[in-house]
Specification:
Blueprint: H1 3-18, E1 21-25, H2 47-50, E2 54-59, E3 68-69, E4 82-88, H3 97-107, E5 108-119, H4 139-145, E6 151-157, H5 160-166, H6 176-184, E7 195-201
Parallel strand pairs: 1-2, 1-4, 2-3, 4-5
Antiparallel strand pairs: 5-7, 6-7
Helix pairs in contact: 5-6
């Protein structure tokens, strides 16, 4: 398993093993296509963890049938009311990502966890009629977004070569060979990456 998938799995298991009230903004775990707009079969293993928690999906698009309809810029939740927030591939689609991060911080309880994914070198991907595609985030950008947390661990997603290959539609699902080349040439820790995962503690 590559280092970014390992990071994702370890941190998501930590969240679902140690916290009960979990908010998934945008439904980025993609485990329930009845409550979001996408489903990813490779994350089906998470269902066993989710069933033991109070896991809720929030989205501003009512058509996706989330548990909570709400805007990340003004979350319809009290201060310090959730134990963990998951926000995967959302911040590039919002008009004010800094304001959105302040809202995530506001609703987290002290000691709460946040798992964030943001893209950097990634193709344009709006959802016409629902979401625009506004931003990309460098390493410095994700560091700044997570600066209020007492801990923020940041992991790049893909090395330099597999990042380039991921930009081509016919190669995006076949990057494992390039992952190995990245590791061989020590490009797997490059800041020229598809994006960043961050695990934060308030």
């Amino acid at each position: 398993m590559n280092q970014w998938d390992k990071f994702f799995k370890e941190k998501i298991i930590k969240i679902f093993s140690e916290k009960i009230d979990i908010l998934d903004i945008g439904g980025g775990l993609r485990v329930d296509n009845s409550k979001s707009n996408r489903f990813n079969e490779k994350n089906i293993w998470l269902k066993a963890y989710i069933e033991k928690t109070n896991y809720k999906i929030l989205d501003k698009v009512a058509d996706y049938k989330p548990d909570i309809v709400g805007d990340i810029h003004s979350l319809p939740l009290p201060d310090e009311s959730v134990e963990a927030v998951i926000c995967i591939a959302v911040l590039e689609h919002v008009e004010e990502p800094i304001k959105a991060m302040k809202e995530i911080y506001r609703v987290l309880k002290p000691g709460g966890y946040a798992f964030i994914y943001v893209p950097f070198l990634y193709y344009y991907h709006p959802q016409p009629g629902y979401y625009n595609d506004f931003y990309r985030f460098t390493y410095d950008g994700i560091k700044y977004l997570t600066k209020d947390f007492k801990l923020a661990e940041i992991q790049n997603v893909r090395g330099a070569l597999s990042t380039v290959m991921n930009l081509f539609p016919y190669l995006s699902k076949k990057t494992s060979m390039f992952d190995r080349l990245d590791k061989l040439f020590k490009k797997d820790i490059s800041r020229q990456t598809s994006g960043y995962n961050a695990f934060c503690i308030k």
